């Protein structure tokens, strides 16, 4: 222990040194222009390089501080490496690695080696720390011929994992770099570059594995991903808050997180659809329906429509417009971008009409007007406000919001019942509207060609400057960070953190945002990688939107069909993916439940088995001493008091067991407010504060979350999959408070779970 503590002291001293250097460098880079070499373009670029480099380093130093080093690998060939959250080198001429980043290849045996396949290891050590103090060591001997003993062997190999799983929850998910399991490691580092589907039951680590995969990809493909950013889509804001600290704690910040209701820049879904409306809006056919609706808005004039111009009246008949419309549609451009073609054809034909009239030879000879005269006539026709108004009427410009709002107010091309389900005038946007807005934006297009051309020319200029600055930075680098075998692949060197193009983008006066920030504002942004959690919930229309955001199809999809409850969700992975990648996707499964103890899992599984006797839940890695309990009250109005009493009892238990902890009351939506009022210390609402000791949630809000204790209220009101989700959120204790009879599968599970001597009465709490 003493030797590891000495090492830890050296390591933290080095970290402090690096942090100070980075802070100093950052301070001087941020100094006012006059002191830092003037305000020239070149000087500003150099400053940007420094700021990007040093703030990246600082973020990594700060993130790496907690649990900086957690493992050690001693190889048979004499190599001896410490493994940590980030890689750090000594300040010597060889830049010897002090600690290796967990994502480096050389760290892999830490997660994969077994007695059977030792991967060249003699021993593997887990180092537990509190702050900078080493508090425990666990050694595993992997080379059976190794007779050396340290006194730290022989402890349960899973001790570190189990202590992490037993720890009280904080309301925030933590990284698992110290205890990644072999089946998880294979997914995190999967070489597959396309769509990877990670499936598994509740608590199998799907979410945490996907986040670590993002961290790994940001390391392994840093150049691409730092520029294109990673998008993480999660079911609700509470969930995103819950997982939000995992990647920053691993030093990764180039990530945008969003719910499906936030995927159209400038709009946030705040209203809720009925299940019927959400189902209709989510259907793949809506893409065709909207496309037809856009064509409907390309209209024909009333017969005999006359337009008055300075040069006389013009007849705008259906033939003229039909031809112009046909020619505009033939361009295959989106509606708004095809409009100039339509306008041009209409003006051309009206001009011809005018020219025929003005320049006609009464004796039947050729037209008197020359090409210049006709061109002049064309200009005056185009400038006519009446002509413009007619074109606006026949081929109007729309924003996506206008188009979708018009469609919802009068839904066409839908069967009557479906149209009724979605009909809405005005009002706020819903989550199911977001893919419709995106589809509309695709159908309409955005005429930004001139702005794009200008921006691109300016950008090329900046890239040339930036390349010069980077060459300068590369030549003068003093590198601290290194953990990959390849000397040239500095993980966080300036020239990797920020390449010429990114630097050029950053140098743009008006736009100093990160890639993730720019991505958030840009509907057409192509992300380097997308992670979708609770992917089984998304509708076919939502998938169309997401696939547009990721043309490379580099995606990790996380889901569990048994937890699917959204109306209109896609169903099978094949159905989701076939239109976009055919059969070119990989499917991996996780089979061990790290969250829910077996007593609780048995009860939850009973609920699904009641509808599907062949259902097999994931195997729980833990059991706890507490049997789930149920308490029945005579009438619904007694629920709030009973829940308040149960919360007091359970929080006291958590206090006894873990010193702290988090409890969730999961109740049907209509009861949430009443229960929250009966629990004054609790947090509830659209964005509940999960770090509070007690939260009150609806079943959909509980998705993906976990708590030490969970009290499920009135489960008869839940759908089967919602109930399964609710019952599988607890890491320690589960209770049910109800007035109505328990659903069939739950009642049977509770009976089986009751400890002998507890009376066998489901109606009586096992706790008394
Ligand atoms: N290797 C591990 N080491 C430590 N903790 C782990 C490990 N794997 C998973 N866990 C923990 O198990 C819990 C469940 O993980 P996670 O939320 O990712 O599961 P999930 O499969 O997404 O669950 P659900 O589908 O129910 O939302 C988390 O607290 C996670 O940190």
TrEMBL record:
Coiled coil: none annotated. GO terms for cellular component: cytosol. It holds the Pfam family UvrD-helicase. One of its GO terms (biological process) is recombinational repair. PROSITE patterns: UVRD_HELICASE_ATP_BIND. Residues 179-597 form the UvrD-like helicase ATP-binding domain. ATP binds at residues 200-207. Keywords: ATP-binding, Helicase, Hydrolase, Nucleotide-binding. One of its GO terms (molecular function) is ATP binding. The keyword Hydrolase applies. InterPro entries: DNA_helicase_UvrD/REP, P-loop_NTPase, UvrD-like_ATP-bd. PANTHER family: DNA 3'-5' HELICASE, UVRD / RECB / PCRA DNA HELICASE FAMILY MEMBER. This is DUF2075 domain-containing protein. It comes from Streptomyces xinghaiensis. The lineage of its organism: Bacteria, Bacillati, Actinomycetota, Actinomycetes, Kitasatosporales.
């Amino acid at each position: 222990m003493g030797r590891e503590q000495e090492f830890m002291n050296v390591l933290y001293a080095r970290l402090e040194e690096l942090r100070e250097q980075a802070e100093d460098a950052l301070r001087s880079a941020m100094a006012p222009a006059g002191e830092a070499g003037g305000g020239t373009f070149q000087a500003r670029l150099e400053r940007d390089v420094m700021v990007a480099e040093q703030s990246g380093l600082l973020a990594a130093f700060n993130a790496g501080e907690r649990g900086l080093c957690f493992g050690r690998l001693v190889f048979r060939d004499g190599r001896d490496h410490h493994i940590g959250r980030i890689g750090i080198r000594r300040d010597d001429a060889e830049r010897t690695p002090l600690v290796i980043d967990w994502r480096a290849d050389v760290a892999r045996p830490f997660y994969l080696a077994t007695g059977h396949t030792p991967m060249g290891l003699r021993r593997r050590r887990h180092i537990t720390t509190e702050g900078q103090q080493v508090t425990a060591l666990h050694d595993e001997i992997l080379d059976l011929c190794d007779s050396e003993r340290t006194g730290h062997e022989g402890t349960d190999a899973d001790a570190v994992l189990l202590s992490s799983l037993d720890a009280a929850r904080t309301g925030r998910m933590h990284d698992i770099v110290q205890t990644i399991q072999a089946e998880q490691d294979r997914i995190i580092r999967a070489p597959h570059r396309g769509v990877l589907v990670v499936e598994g039951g509740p608590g199998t680590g799907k979410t945490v594995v996907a986040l670590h995969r993002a961290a790994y990809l940001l390391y392994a493909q840093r150049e691409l991903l730092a520029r294109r950013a990673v998008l993480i889509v999660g079911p609700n804001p509470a969930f995103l808050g819950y997982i939000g600290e995992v990647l920053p704690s691993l030093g990764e910040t180039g990530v945008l997180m969003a719910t499906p209701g936030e995927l159209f820049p400038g709009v946030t879904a705040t209203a809720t659809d009925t299940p019927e409306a959400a189902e209709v809006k989510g259907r793949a056919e809506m893409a065709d329906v909207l496309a037809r609706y856009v064509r409907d808005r390309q209209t024909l004039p009333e017969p005999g429509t006359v337009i008055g111009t300075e040069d006389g009246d013009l007849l705008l008949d259906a033939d003229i417009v039909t031809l112009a419309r046909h020619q505009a549609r033939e361009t295959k451009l989106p509606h708004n971008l095809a409009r100039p073609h339509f306008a041009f054809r209409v003006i051309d034909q009206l001009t011809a009409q005018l020219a025929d009239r003005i320049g006609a030879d009464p004796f039947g000879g050729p037209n008197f007007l020359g090409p210049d005269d006709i061109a002049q006539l064309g200009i005056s026709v185009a400038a006519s406000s009446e002509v413009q108004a007619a074109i606006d009427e026949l081929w109007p410009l729309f924003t996506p919001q206008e188009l979708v709002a018009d469609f919802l107010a009068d839904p066409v091309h839908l069967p009557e019942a479906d149209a009724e389900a979605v009909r809405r005038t005005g009002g706020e946007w819903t989550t199911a509207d977001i893919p419709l807005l995106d589809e509309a934006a695709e159908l309409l297009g955005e005429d930004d060609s001139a702005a794009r051309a200008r921006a691109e020319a300016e950008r090329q200029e900046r890239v040339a400057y930036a390349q010069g600055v980077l060459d300068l930075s590369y030549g003068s680098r003093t590198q601290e960070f290194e953990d990959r075998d390849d000397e040239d692949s500095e993980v966080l060197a300036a020239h990797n953190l920020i390449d010429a193009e990114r630097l050029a983008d950053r140098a743009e006066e008006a736009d100093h945002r990160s890639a993730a920030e720019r991505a958030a504002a840009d509907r057409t942004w192509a992300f380097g990688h997308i992670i979708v959690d609770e992917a089984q919930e998304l509708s076919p229309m939502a998938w169309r939107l997401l696939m547009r955001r990721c043309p490379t199809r580099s995606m990790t999809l996380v889901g569990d069909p048994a937890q699917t409850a959204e109306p209109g969700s896609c169903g099978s992975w094949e159905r989701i993916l076939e239109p976009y990648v055919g059969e070119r996707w990989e499917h991996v499964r996780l089979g061990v439940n790290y969250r829910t103890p077996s007593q609780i899992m048995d009860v939850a599984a009973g609920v699904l088995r009641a509808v599907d006797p062949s259902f097999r839940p994931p195997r729980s890695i833990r059991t706890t001493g507490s049997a789930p309990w149920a308490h029945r009250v005579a009438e619904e109005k007694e629920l709030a008091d009973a829940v308040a009493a149960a919360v007091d009892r359970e929080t006291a238990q958590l206090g006894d067991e873990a010193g702290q902890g988090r409890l969730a009351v999961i109740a049907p939506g209509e009861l949430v407010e009443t229960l929250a009022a009966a629990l004054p210390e609790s947090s509830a609402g659209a964005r509940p504060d999960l770090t509070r000791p007690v939260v009150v949630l609806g079943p959909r809000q509980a998705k993906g979350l976990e708590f030490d204790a969970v009290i499920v209220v009135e489960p008869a009101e839940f759908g089967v999959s919602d109930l399964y989700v609710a019952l599988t959120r607890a890491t320690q204790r589960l209770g049910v408070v109800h007035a109505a009879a328990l659903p069939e599968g739950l009642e049977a599970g509770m009976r089986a779970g009751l400890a002998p001597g507890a009376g066998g009465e489901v109606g009586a709490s096992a706790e008394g």
